[in-house]
Amino acid sequence: MTMKRRHFGETAKPESEGLMRGRCVVHIDIDAFFAAVEELLNPALKGKPVIVGGLPHERGVAATCNYEARRYGIHAGMPLRQAYQLCPNGLFIRGNYQVYQAFSEKFFRILYEYTPDVEAASLDEAYLELTRCRPLYASFSEAARRVKGRVEKELGLKVSVGVGPNKILAKLATKRAKPAGFFEVEPGREEDFLRDLGIECLPGIGPKAQVILRMLNIHKIGDLWGMPRSALRSLFGLGGEEVYLQSRGIDSRPVFTRIVPKSVSRETTFLEDIWDRRLLLAHLAYLCDRLTLGLREEHLFAHVIEVKARYSDFKTEVRRCLLLTPLQEMTAIYRVAEDLFLKLFSTSRLSLRLVGVRASDLVRARPLSLFEPYSDREERLAVAVDRVREKYGFGSLLTVRERMLDAIYEFEPRRGFVLKTASLTR
Ligand code: TTP
Ligand code: MG
User: Fold this and answer.
1) What is the pairing mode between strands 118-122 and 416-417?
2) Based on the domain organization, do 416 and 271 belong to the same domain?
3) Percentage of residues of the chain with pLDDT beyond 90
């Protein structure tokens, strides 16, 4: 990273070169996150295949698994039953989202000590832009290695780190580094790095695009370079443009700090299909409660509320409602969700296997309405509820409707109900 001294008479380079030297983006991702936390909490699991997401004969899918389990072909998103067939000796764990979240918060606190430019890509994954902090670091790679060391020491979890001049290259470097490794794409080495990577590594190439490209005998990123931009465009539309740029390691996206998420959602599959309307509404109310907690934590208000129902025949239906005044409070959102749900359910002749609620078109602040009298009563109530829950746990304050779930689920005053997909019970 040190700048080479230039002698007089050498071809002049722009004076600003020192300032303009490229970006440095670090991508960091915890290895087998949920499973690694479980191993840390219970060392007896170490060295054995661990699958998080539910018990072997439960419905639902694996949220993740450790690398030992991956050797059996298990991966995130695989139905638990299938995972069990592949690895009957695997240790299946429901998981605990709140614990993972606590680890995630600690993870991000460490990252912010190195730069304010941190983008949370998910609970266990982040981009750090070090470019602005150049004066603080003699070497970016050194700084990135220090971040890795700190996180591993303080969290007790292994992480993989990739360094590059932009987000796509940093992310691909992390992929190369997994598990527990460090990989830097040095300036000028981009082509060498990309050439032999499989096309499936590019985020713009999904399973369908892969099939098409493989039929054209294109398997590696280097093979894509021979395809004209127009050919990619006619094959994949606008996505083709993305692929054209990604395959060349071109990516001008900034690292977004505290971006507004596209949506926040909560859903659950039931232990058994449910027909009882009151019980279904109890689930819906509980999910709305969890959802609005998420919205408040992020200071978000939703312009769109969506309710999803999956019937016993797996058919899935969604109803949405557009709100002129965005909402955040539990009671208000539940009212909308209940209305949407009843419209769906009233025409159904089947019982349900899943219900979910999603808030989207999110904004950070509620615009003041000119037409409605301003009242912050519900907001103040929500703040009071949060305060009680902070002290006594989420389960300490629930509506009567929500408490109907007592009949079905384990109840923990701290966490609330332990729903079916416990690791995703947020
Ligand atoms: P990932 O970082 O994609 O996966 P991972 O950390 O388990 O494994 P690795 O990064 O080493 O490949 O996701 C982080 C966590 O998010 C993961 O531990 C569990 C959760 N998750 C789900 O709940 N459902 C999913 O489909 C995926 C992919 C992840
Ligand atoms: Mg991870």
Assistant:
1) unpaired
2) yes
3) 73
Q: Residue 79 belongs to what domain range? A: 33-96
Is 369 in the same domain as 223? no
Instruction: Verify that 204 and 277 share a domain, yes or no.
Output: no
Distances (CA, A) of 140 to 33, 159, 165, 254: 26, 18, 11, 18
Q: What's the confidence (pLDDT) of residue 18?
A: 36
125 is catalytic: yes
Q: Which of 28, 31, 33, 159 maximizes ligand 1 atoms within 8 Å of its Cβ, making it the mutation to test the pocket? A: 33
Mean pLDDT over each residue of the chain, to the nearest integer: 89
The pLDDT value given to residue 9: 32
Phi, then psi, of 304 in degrees rounded to 5: -130, 130
Q: What distance in angstroms lies between residue 383's CA and the mean position of ligand 1's atoms? A: 32
Residue 197 alpha carbon to ligand 2 centre in Å: 20
Ligand located closest to 51 CA: 1
**Catalytic one among 38, 119, 125, 190?**
125
Amino acid at 393: G
Ligand 1 atom 24: the closest Cα is on which residue? 63
Residue 9 Rama label (left phi>0; alpha psi -120 to 50; beta):
left
pLDDT at 139: 95
Q: Considering its fold, how many domains does the chain have in total?
A: 3
For residue 370, the model assigns a pLDDT of 58
Q: Is residue 158 part of a domain?
A: no
The pocket around ligand 1, CB under 6 angstroms, is made up of 29-34, 63-64, 76-77, 122-125, 178-179, 424
Q: Mean of the pLDDT values across residues 204-208?
A: 91
State how far the alpha carbon of 261 is from the alpha carbons of 122, 294, 331, 355, in Å: 11, 11, 22, 22
**Ligand 1 atom at shortest distance from the alpha carbon of 35:** 18
266: helix, strand or coil: strand
**Among 168-172, 177-181, 192-196, 291-295, where is mean pLDDT lowest?**
291-295
